[in-house]
Specification:
231 residues, alpha/beta, globular
């Protein structure tokens, strides 16, 4: 069984992923800016939670030091935290631009750097970045979100060449629409009410599979989406 950090643990996919990994016997450390949906998880023996804003580099460093002192070793970091927005670029709020880039791109770089030295010293570890199909192909009204997710592909492509020989790898996961509370009356699923995004548990199981892949197999990136989409 593995010790796994999941950022964005309070979100739909992050929360479900934490639940699935706990059910499979792993120890899970959840990070999020808030814990409004985590009451049941916080009562479980193998779950630890830390309030954390991943856009704060110094805070990340301090919290990861505490985590390592507490559990001793981290096998997997799953970067699930993200900010999503669909708006025409011409109308994009500049503060929201900063929040998207700071969370989706810089935040993942901060968490990765905070754990990388530990994994390199241990000569093992997986970093799984949850990107998006929007990080593989541009989608209308997602210019900033798409840019933030495209950056993860280049980040992983370069970083992997630094760390593969040290026993560590970065995986980039690019899912399409997932059935979470991201889609609601104010932000409807863009393909319409008669189309169905992917079940969140199905997506969590795919990520769980990546957690368990042998260390001598390289899974660089994975793109998948519901049948009603094409990317």
């Amino acid at each position: 069984m593995k010790n796994i950090i999941v950022t964005g643990a309070n979100g739909g996919l992050g929360r479900d992923l934490c639940t699935l990994l706990l059910d499979s016997g792993h120890t899970v450390i959840g990070l999020s800016r808030n814990d409004t949906t985590l009451k049941g998880l916080k009562e479980r023996q193998n779950f630890r939670f830390y309030h954390c804003d991943i856009t704060k580099a110094a805070l990340i460093t301090n919290i990861f030091d505490v985590i390592l002192d507490t559990v001793g070793h981290i096998d997997v970091l799953i970067n699930c935290a993200a900010v999503f927005d669909m708006n025409p670029f011409i109308d994009q709020d500049k503060d929201l631009v900063d929040r998207i880039i700071d969370t989706n791109t810089k935040g993942i770089m901060y968490t990765t750097q905070a754990i990388l030295g530990h994994m390199v010293s241990a000569k093992s570890g997986k970093i799984i970045n949850i990107s998006s199909v929007s990080g593989q192909t541009g989608i209308e009204n997602q210019a900033i979100y798409s840019a933030s997710k495209h950056a993860l592909t280049g980040f992983a492509e370069s970083l992997n060449q630094e760390i593969l020989s040290k026993g560590v790898q970065v995986m980039t996961v690019c899912p399409g629409g997932i059935d979470t509370d991201l889609w609601n009356e104010d932000n409807p699923y863009p393909l319409g009410p008669d189309k169905k995004p992917m079940d969140v548990r199905a997506v969590s199981k795919i990520i769980e599979f990546l957690v368990g892949t042998p260390d001598d197999i390289i899974m660089k990136s994975l793109v998948f989406f519901p049948r009603c989409e094409w990317h």
